[in-house]
């Protein structure tokens, strides 16, 4: 039986109208495909599909017919009272989806996926990783540009930077030249400089031994009681304290998404008592408070008590230090100066971080005792560290609050303005380097017609290959280091076995007394884990140095300015978490059978018997540290990648232009005018 169809005597029914509209839409899509074919010669496609055998006159005729067909389609629809639906898909979303598909296709070019088509030689795997990394980097930047569309508010953002007017005007001139010439490789650098111009932050880190009064001082300074006092902080997770209109706490974890909770829950995540051994796997803490002394973009950092960290080696200590503009070292007046305090101060000075030395809990001493202690501490610092630093007595209790306020007003507050000055100098250096790079590219475009000798072309190709290899190394670094991190726990187990062997050898085969093994096992595991962590740090440091050398060589070959050496680009690997397990109080009496067996069997048997006692403490600490270190490694590799790509892209683009594979920029006759404007802006 035929289905009933609604009959509209005055015209087409709804089904027929829909069929007519869809058919017209399909015809319009095919017409767009024809236009794409006609425009293929202007698209500069890397893999052209069509041989354009249509003359200009024929093309104009085709375009006229297409216009007439479209006009007729619209009249047909109007005659039947069929109206076009307005477009509903944002172009940016469609581009974003296509770029996502491109990114997936590129990811599947990685060697581990290409092995399905046959083995990939090891010497080529890194080059393939570099190819994928280069292409994914460009696609990612284009995708971020589509999503963020930062160019739309570029002028408005610059106008808000009234205190850096000259720098903002020069950056605006550079941006105009970059936009008009299509020099997209410079856009990430422009965005980075603009972000830095808007960032008015000053980071001040507070160092000191456990119970030296760091949290009490910060509570008093910021007029709050949120920071926990009289507790042991978890190891290697500093608490950053910044401004917000309402108090809140944001916690990052190594194994799950971040959480935002009330500020008064800080103790749950930042103390050994409520987060023993960092069992919650906290990797970062940000506390935001409506404190007046945080309003100007100041961030304080409450570091964990250094304990034995400072004696763990200068390089390790330096790796631990957070990236900060100023350090405050607290020395406990109740226990005077220690070798650990001096080692920490030496590490800070070695890192070129300005230091203020404060003598905390000064209220405990009489005036005479305080004066003697100040002289002793100052003299010791001069003799041991070779630095003459003022030692300022402070106290966090209300009766002596004036000491802390006096120091803040006289010493710390004036640095806020100094930090702004230093930041402005850094910005001017970055903009100057960017101007030189853009000018060099413009000059090269002006000389585009000159023939490049074969030897020079080969050097340029070798430069491209070197940059690609560094990109490949960066792409491989993450999986390789993740594999290394998986060895931490087996390494700790091996250290326990070795410790057990030494204990058996030292105690003899007939010993019946209880053996204190906790400290021995802890120290052996600590040394093994720290050694592996230090090797990872050195590998990443070498990778960053190789990247810097490759950039410098590329700049020389391409006759471009050298990468700007700036403090903002330094210390890419700072802030490495340090393994510092808690004390292990363990005594053990080995069974007679184990002692009689002796040799490797007894060694392994003893380690296995002790593993159950240590698993919930020492081995758990190793596992947590591995998770936190993994997060730090991923972040550090990402920083190196971004830093390298921000400069390497401009070198790649210049190489592309010199080799003649990139399209020449339009308006070549205006290059000299652009160069003149860049030079004039610098003089003004």
Write structural notes for this entry:
Helix content is 59%, strand content 8%. The protein is of the alpha/beta class. Helix 1 runs antiparallel to helix 2. The protein is built from 20 helices and eleven strands. Helix 13 links the parallel strand 8 and strand 9. Among the domains are: 66 residues; 56 residues; 70 residues, no CATH class; 206 residues, no CATH class. The N terminus is likely disordered. The protein has a nine-stranded mixed sheet, with helices on both faces. A two-stranded antiparallel ribbon has the order 10-11. The radius of gyration is 33 Å and the shape is globular.
In brief:
By secondary structure, the protein is of the alpha/beta class.
